[in-house]
Each structure stands twice: as C-alpha cells, then as structure tokens.
Amino acid sequence: MLLHLQTWPDIDAYLTKSQAILMPIGSTEQHGPNGLIGTDAICAEAVAKGVGEKLGLLVAPTIAVGMAQHHLAFSGSISLRPSTLIAVIRDNVLSLARHGFRDFYFINGHGGNIATITAAFSEIHAETSFGKPGNESGLRLKLRNWWEAPGVGPLSRELFPGAEGHHATPSEVSLTWAIHPEAARPMKLDPPIAPSGGFSDAEDYRRRFPDGRIGSNPGLASREAGERFYAAAVEGVAEDCRSWLAS
Question: What CATH number has the domain bearing residue 129?
Fold first, then answer.
C-alpha cells in the first residue's frame, strides 16, 4: 500500500490496525556508464513496496535525493547537504507522527546516507528526550540497508565473484534492470573491474574514478540476476522488519 495512493480516511482506517510505516530512502547520483542515476532510490522503493505487500504495511513516498555531494562532478547527480537531509527526515517523521504513526522502518539504498540518517534519528530522539513541547514521544526508528539482507551478499559472491566493488555494483544495477528492463544498458567496460580507494570531495572522486565506478564491474549485470536480488532483498528485509515490529 502506497501512502500517496490512499485517501485520508484510508490512513485513519490503517492506523486502527498498525502504527508502522516503511520509509524508502535513496539517492539521485551517477552509477557509472551503464547504471541509472536513480539507482539508489529505485532499489529502495522497489524493496519497500515488496516488503509492504508481504507484511501488509504502508509505504511512504520515497526520499529520492540523499547525501551525495561526492558525486556532483558527474552530470545529473543531485545532493542534499547533511543538515538538509536531517531536516527532511525529521519533518517526514514528525508529520506522520502527528497522525499516530510510531514505528518508522527506513529502507535505505545509498551507503552515503547512513551517517546522516543515523544523525537524524538522534536529533528526533533528542527532541523528545529534552522535552521540547509539541513533539511526539514513543517513536521507534530503524534503519536497514537493503543490500545487507542475509541472502544478498552470498548471491553477489555467487554471481559476481571479486567484481561487486563499492559503487555502481553489478547487484544494484541488476536490480534496477529487473524493475526497469527498458532502461537496461548492457556493455563491456574497460577496465572490467574499476580501481578502488578513498576520496575526498567531488573533484577528487572524479579524478580517481573517471567513469564513476569504484572496484566494480556492472558490465556483468543482468535482468535475471536482478530478479534474484529482488527476491532475496524482500525476503530478508521483511523478516528483519517483522522481527523488529514484534520486539
């Protein structure tokens, strides 16, 4: 169930049965020569929809622009400052909390969001802890990265041994192609596996990784692999969410 496809009476009816909501969050950034700019948001949203269908949970609109300043030297990438993303997460959560939602399960598609999401959770809890008037108490917040679902890592090692890398990975590119097969762009990359290493700002990233990949070979991506990643991610994330809600 997607929140934006419901009416307000639908939401009131839902809240009589559950106070939980799934919060997909991703990024809009380059993903190498054949990866979609919306990869991280597309993956988070698809997994959240699958989990929502499996558990009968409502899915909030995807927060599609994240903390991606290090990708800004590549055309089409969009980023929020960490402070802005914290404010966006806070306002989304507190808006929904006003109506009675209490359990917020964030399904994340972008590693660069993790620190900021965690900081946003701390800010939200701090408002309650310091007793700021008007803020809802008793909120629970959970972050889950879809690629950390138990079945995803083993599947990646089976399909792409030594080629998963750290950015523009064949697993995430495959997942987007399963969701949007019309956008698939198979190609051979040179070198097949991109260099690895650290970076500082956007210009340094572009200098070190000129085609946008880090340690990966998304030339191995396929729609068929993406369908397997989707199934593994939904199963694993749903089980984690079910367990968390029951705790």
Answer: 3.40.50.10310
